[in-house]
Write a structure and sequence with these properties.
single chain, 257 residues, mainly alpha, Rhomboid-like fold, three-stranded antiparallel sheet, 54% helix, 8% strand
């Protein structure tokens, strides 16, 4: 189950969101084809990923920034960019281009610090924009809790699209990160749950001044908890397949006398 779009496109062109998506894709395309083996890929990660143990040793601080623009594979990249595409434009709309760019970077750096604090001796390289995007999701939840989000539910062979409020999707996602983080071992690799949870909380905290300046609960009341511009309408039309009539032909049987 994952979101595929929201019902409130931004009121202005989200140049920063587009630029961030382009930067992540281009950087991935620049280094991933060079990883002709797992060893070559790990050498790239060792240089540019966030490795907590190296930070503890007193160097490799650039990994907090460079790791935000690296990904471990195509699905990792596409999943993160989908979330940024869905939730980033409305946040940029409210924060402005420069404000959103700063918000994104600070959320990502803060998420990296939380991840480091969860396992400062870990030698596992960490890559991905998900900490920064988690901050975007946290801010989105605070500003637009009742925005409509379409989610794709996949149950073996069943594919269905449901429309649910943002608070349900994002609240469930955050709860999952907390639950999974409690049982995760930072030395074993896998998903950086604490970076996700930390980025989400940081995103809420960074958005709070804007929320209060917009009127706090009054902002929710004026806009019904949704972005303050017209809602897009999506239609689910069944595919029109022309009906073909089947004509049954009964062959003529001749009798021999």
């Amino acid at each position: 189950m994952f979101p595929i779009r929201d019902h409130n496109p931004s009121g202005r062109r989200p140049y920063v969101t587009w630029t961030l998506i382009a930067a992540n894709v281009l950087i991935f395309l620049a280094y991933y084809p060079l990883a002709t083996s797992d060893q070559a890929l790990m050498q790239i990660y060792a240089e540019f990923a966030l490795v907590p143990a190296l930070v503890t040793e007193g160097y490799h601080y650039h990994g907090f920034l460079t790791s935000m623009f690296m990904h471990g594979g195509w699905m990792h990249l596409l999943g993160n960019m989908l979330f940024l595409w869905i939730f980033g434009d409305n946040m940029e709309d409210e924060m402005g281009h420069f404000g959103f760019a700063l918000f994104y970077l600070v959320s990502g750096l803060g998420a990296g610090l939380v991840h480091y604090a969860s396992g400062p001796g870990s030698l596992v390289p960490t890559v991905g924009a998900s900490g920064a995007i988690a901050g975007v999701m946290g801010g989105y939840l605070l500003l637009f809790p009742r925005a409509k989000v379409d989610i794709l539910l996949i149950l073996i062979i069943l594919f269905r699209i449901f429309t649910v409020p943002a608070w349900l999707v994002l609240g469930a996602w955050f709860a999952l990160q907390l639950y999974s983080g409690l049982g995760a071992d930072p030395d074993m690799g896998g998903v950086a749950y604490w970076a996700h949870a930390g980025g989400f909380v940081i995103g809420v905290a960074l958005t709070l001044p804007l929320f209060l300046r917009l009127g706090g609960a009054g902002f929710w009341t004026r806009n019904h908890g949704q972005p303050p511009h017209p809602e897009a309408e999506y239609r689910y039309d069944a595919t029109r397949i022309p009906t073909v009539r089947k004509v049954t032909r009964i062959p003529t049987v001749r009798r021999r006398k």
